[in-house]
Amino acid sequence: MKLLVILLFSGLTTVCGGNSSHSLPPKLLLVSFDGFRADYLQNYEFPHLQNFIKEGVLVEHVKNVFITKTFPNHYSIVTGLYEESHGIVANSMYDVITKKHFSDFDDKDPFWWNEAVPIWVTNQLQKNRSSAAAMWPGTDVPIHNTTPSYFMNYSSSVSFEERLNNITTWLMNSNPPVTFATLYWEEPDASGHKYGPEDKENMYRVLKEVDNLIGELVHKLKVLGLWENLNVIITSDHGMTQCSKDRLINLDLCIDRSSYTLIDLTPVAAILPKINTTEVYNKLKVCNPHMNVYLKEDIPARFHYQHNDRIQPVILVADEGWTIVLNKSLPKLGDHGYDNSLSSMHPFLAAHGPAFHKGYKHSTINSVDIYPMMCHILGLQPHPNNGTFGHTKCLLVDQWCINLPEAIGIVIGALLVLTTLTCLIIIMQNRLSVPRPFSRLQLQEDDDDPLIE
Ligand SMILES: [Zn+2]
């Protein structure tokens, strides 16, 4: 009984448990390993990452946003917005009004980024706080005239070690202190494209390297004394799926190139018609059964991918593993960008630190939910967003969260306590009352009367 009460009490305190006194301002490091597909965690070994998870939390699947490409998804993580709302709708974009172009190699114009306010800008604008970034997409652009106090211009040739060194230096020796930092790494995306996720041998090697980098990160944070007070989120932008030369969709077989401008190609093609839009649409509609063709106004609502000038009048969405090409061979063995309801497109999320529970596993959240959670951890007022803070409450120590197993445990515990108390009361009452001697049941006179006269 005593044990039961203790268990029940400790269960309740675990559930409601608050984050006790922390005099230091909360700090958060957000890390992305590009293209880290969620089920790599089940299919490969990650000793360092598993150690990190053991002392923290894991979200097995993060449902990301459509289109499942790098720039759009990294911006959704830090703004909590769908692509139509933050304006980074693809890795390659064209704005019809200003006639501006955006690509992986030409991404520095704030025009593209200013439709939203990323968390590093909000954090940077607080009194006595600053932000730092090692190559997260957009962090080297003055968004709303603000960059992080410390950032690196993007270059894929800079080593992980150098990026990590910078981040830890900034986290330790800055005034005002760096309270929000980001770190970005190109793998396992680059190798996922090159080999395809079904190439077990190469992916094993690459994922082992990624795990070693996570080991280095944790080791460095521990050596520098940052580990205990720093919140660290490790996540990714999207997954990866296998492509094949046997799954090509050749647009040249269906439509003349002179009738449209191609803004983006695969697996979501963005088509700007030069002639009548309906004519272009009708030709593409019957082009290939492994591709959905949408007029902008008919794009399914679940994609949240319609209300932005940068989304072109016709978009083509290839089925998983299919590649849209212009009369040429397969460009990559692995790709992403497909429908965001496909689990192969989902990344994971792991987190560790004073804000997070230890040893807690959660099945799924949306990538747009990460932003309100990060704002909560840092005590920042979030901008309007598409995320739901409630989805991440179970990950956080200072939040009341009921998940099903805990709720069942509490109900069963409470019932057991009540039953035991009732039994005790009955036993005590029986003991206190004087036992009556057995007496024969006396029938009253009326009872002998016949029921029917
Ligand atoms: Zn990516």
Output the CATH homologous superfamily of the largest domain. Alkaline Phosphatase, subunit A
Q: How would you state the average pLDDT, rounded? A: 91
Largest sheet: 8 strands, mixed
Low-confidence stretches: 1-22, 437-453
- Number of distinct beta strands: 18
Write down the domain tally.
2
Determine and state the CATH class of the largest domain: Alpha Beta
What is the overall number of helices? 13
How far the N terminus sits from the C terminus, by CA atoms, comes to 59 Å
Hetero compounds: zinc ion
Radius of gyration: 29 Å
* Rough outline: globular
Oligomer class: single chain
**Can you tell me the CATH architecture of the largest domain?**
3-Layer(aba) Sandwich
Strand content: 15-25%
Provide the helix percentage. Answer: 25-40%
**For the largest beta sheet, what order do the strands appear in spatially?**
6-5-7-1-8-17-2-18
Tell me the structural class. alpha/beta
Describe this structure in words.
It is a single chain. With 453 residues, the chain is of the alpha/beta class. The protein folds into 2 domains: 25-242 and 340-395, 3-Layer(aba) Sandwich (Alkaline Phosphatase, subunit A); 248-331, 2-Layer Sandwich (Gyrase A, domain 2), CATH 3.30.1360.180. Helix content is 31%, strand content 18%. An 8-stranded mixed beta sheet has the order 6-5-7-1-8-17-2-18, sandwiched between helices. A 4-stranded antiparallel beta sheet has the order 11-12-14-13, with helices on one face. Helix 3 (47-54) packs across helix 10. The longest helix is centred in the last third of the chain and has 29 residues, at 404-432. It is globular, with a radius of gyration of 29 Å. The model is unreliable at 1-22 and 437-453 (pLDDT under 50). Bound molecules: zinc ion. Residues 34-35, 70, 189, 237-238 line the site of zinc ion.
